[in-house]
Amino acid sequence: MYSFDMVRPKTVADAVAALQQEDAQALGGGQTLIPTLKQRLAMPSVLVSLSAIDEMKGVSAEAGVLTLGGGTTHATVAREAAAHYLALAALAGNIGDPAVRNRGTIGGSIANNDPSACYPAAALGSGATIVTNTREIAADDFFQGMFTTALEEGEIVTAVKFPIPEAAAYVKFEQPASRFALVGVFVSRGSSGVRVAVTGASNDGVHRWGAAEEALAGSFSASALDGLSVPADDMISDLHGTAAYRAHLVSVMTKRAVAAAG
């Protein structure tokens, strides 16, 4: 580690003001940022902790929409969202280990947009809306590639709004050491149609599988996906799995997610 200053504001307004300092960085649960600092891959001079901002925490449901505060931990989502959106609660309950789930936050995960993270698939697969301190952004516009989002400098994810679908499920093939998704697929069916979001597989990060959505719109069953596959050209290839293996897993995990949702 190295020397840096740390502030812990209690309101979103104070956090936004603190982030105006030169070389300041927001800190959510720290599950990604702290290891990054230890490796000197990032060296901000000021960390602005968001952990004391109560207005960014909590789970609520109204008029068919589940709203999660950006500072809400995975453990809280797993516990309190189950009565409203079981697929999302189950996803949160299977992120990392207990230490990660009790410190990591949905806002931090969404803002970081790790290509193998689970929450981006849930947001994109649900047609969620990401709320910041200045605007609301549709998930389709928010995620823009590996570790890249529509967030501007100093912008904070204050909440995420999930339309509650008629049916949904998330299935992931875990990398056993990290429990990140080697490939994960979130499927939902609601009033706006069928959505299929894939994480962990592509060099472009989380994305929708349009061909699968079209097939499932006609028949929401695993058999509707028979014969469908994705090209391996843009898939991640590393020591955990080749591009061809990940492409195969996309089809397998999607079928499993549809079966679980149905």
TrEMBL record:
<dbReference type="GO" id="GO:0071949">
    <property type="term" value="F:FAD binding"/>
</dbReference>
<dbReference type="InterPro" id="IPR002346">
    <property type="entry name" value="Mopterin_DH_FAD-bd"/>
</dbReference>
<keyword id="KW-0285">Flavoprotein</keyword>
<dbReference type="InterPro" id="IPR016169">
    <property type="entry name" value="FAD-bd_PCMH_sub2"/>
</dbReference>
<keyword id="KW-0274">FAD</keyword>
<dbReference type="Pfam" id="PF00941">
    <property type="entry name" value="FAD_binding_5"/>
</dbReference>
<dbReference type="InterPro" id="IPR051312">
    <property type="entry name" value="Diverse_Substr_Oxidored"/>
</dbReference>
<dbReference type="InterPro" id="IPR016167">
    <property type="entry name" value="FAD-bd_PCMH_sub1"/>
</dbReference>
<dbReference type="InterPro" id="IPR005107">
    <property type="entry name" value="CO_DH_flav_C"/>
</dbReference>
<feature type="domain" description="FAD-binding PCMH-type">
    <location>
        <begin position="1"/>
        <end position="167"/>
    </location>
</feature>
<dbReference type="GO" id="GO:0016491">
    <property type="term" value="F:oxidoreductase activity"/>
</dbReference>
<dbReference type="InterPro" id="IPR016166">
    <property type="entry name" value="FAD-bd_PCMH"/>
</dbReference>
<dbReference type="InterPro" id="IPR036683">
    <property type="entry name" value="CO_DH_flav_C_dom_sf"/>
</dbReference>
<keyword id="KW-0560">Oxidoreductase</keyword>
<protein>
    <submittedName>
        <fullName>FAD binding domain-containing protein</fullName>
    </submittedName>
</protein>
<dbReference type="InterPro" id="IPR036318">
    <property type="entry name" value="FAD-bd_PCMH-like_sf"/>
</dbReference>
